[in-house]
Amino acid sequence: MPSSTTQLAEQHLPEPVVPVILSGGSGSRLWPVSRSSYPKQFWPLVSQHTMVQETALRSHGPGFAAPIVVCNNEHRFIMAEQLREVGVTGARILLEPMGRNSAPAIVAAALLAAETDPDAVLWVMAADAAMMKPENIRPALDLAVRVARAGRIVTFGMMPTKAETGYGYIEKGDSLPGYDGAFAVAQFTEKPDAARAAAMFESGRFLWNSGMFVFTARTLLQEMEKFEPAIVAAVGQAMAGRRTDIDFDRLDAEAFAASPEISIDYAVAERTDLMTVIPADFGWFDVGSWDALWEFNPKDRNGNVVSGDVVMNNTTNSYVRTDGILTAVAGVKDLLVVVNEDAVLVTHRDHAQDVKNIVAELKRTHRKEATAHRRCYRPWGFYESLIEGSRFQVKRIVVEPGQKLSLQKHFHRAEHWVVVEGTAQVVRNEETILVRENESVYLPLGAVHRLENPGRIPLTLIEVQSGPYLGEDDIVRLEDVYSRS
């Protein structure tokens, strides 16, 4: 698959730019791969890198400051680890206690940047958009920085390739004097119907709304104060009351909850007279549905896009992905087939947007597959359920070198741990026990215990739980290095 990870590191921008990465949303139209516990931005969907890694690498190196990342509390360790994997260091990770849409998130980032430099230029990007022509970013960003330093708010309008009904549009206005290639914004248009999209595409005046913005912290905050002072006040209090936790900044929950919930488009972009658009061709597309991934990925001679262990026969114009088991597809066309470890999606490409309705139904019936994967990631590693039955459950637990679980106890279950790889150091009440490969330890109900990997390789063990209630909420944490409650 093509990669959009070509960096701008060797192309020094005139002034350092502060990347702002917004990582919100659950990507429900990309279920069953994307779920709220591990959404689409953390998956490799267009290259060997995840979407958030693609976004971070796009704005990494000379000419760029360390990024500001805004994400929710549940994803904090996943975010930090994925940035570390690709060498993006020094990121300031702001944790939202709850989602309040993009305007409050961007205000928080602007306030943080303004603490160091009120005139810092911010490049705001969603964590889940692909750019298949990254070589075209530099000239457009260079121009956007100059326009932003002149006190304007800039967005990139993507050159449309078809009459797309799934994107918003921007109509170009008059050219901006002194800045060749930049234009005033005549109007924003919400996602149009097919007839309106066709008319806008044919006119040549309309661009796809990429949702990216470039501005100085000072300009953005001044315009937000003008149009949405309640957001600035609430987020300002949340920033003032924030607390640092390891490598994260936790916004004050009570203050942040008081902020109005509104997008940056409605809050400022559609109301300010400073709005500027720069037409560009970044090979941009919103990774918002399985059909979008079919459309923008290379296809075989039958028009198929295939990922994973797939066998096809007499199949055309389809997207088939499996993250595990062999998947065979025969005698069909125009289908989306996605196979996960605990769920399978099959739908016609014309109904790709309806996947979110499936997720809504799963949530209504309280199916855990709606929000969580079988594998659950934690700051110390991950666990996955292997077998569940009446009064027992078997899990595989992997603990990374040097990491340890919380000191905890349970009221409803006992546990038996069998080490299959590595060495475990186990606290059980007053004992500290070293458990090696092919050895086991029993933790009776109510025992205070902790698991730690003191070695240099991942620790893998099989956990057998037994008891009348085996929910994850039967954990009483007495001490935790990751500051979890």
From TrEMBL:
Residues 19-301 form the Nucleotidyl transferase domain. Its EC number is 2.7.7.13. InterPro entries: GMPP_N, Man1P_GuaTrfase/Man6P_Isoase, Man6P_isomerase-2_C, ManC/GMP-like_b-helix, Mannose-6P_isomerase_type2, NTP_transferase_dom, Nucleotide-diphossugar_trans, RmlC-like_jellyroll. One of its GO terms (molecular function) is mannose-1-phosphate guanylyltransferase (GTP) activity. GO terms for biological process: GDP-mannose biosynthetic process; polysaccharide biosynthetic process. Residues 366-480 form the Mannose-6-phosphate isomerase type II C-terminal domain. Keywords: GTP-binding, Nucleotide-binding, Nucleotidyltransferase, Transferase. CDD domains: cupin_PMI_typeII_C (cd02213), GDP-M1P_Guanylyltransferase (cd02509). Signal peptide: none annotated. It holds the Pfam family NTP_transferase. It catalyses: alpha-D-mannose 1-phosphate + GTP + H(+) = GDP-alpha-D-mannose + diphosphate. Residues 308-362 form the MannoseP isomerase/GMP-like beta-helix domain. Belongs to the mannose-6-phosphate isomerase type 2 family. This is mannose-1-phosphate guanylyltransferase.
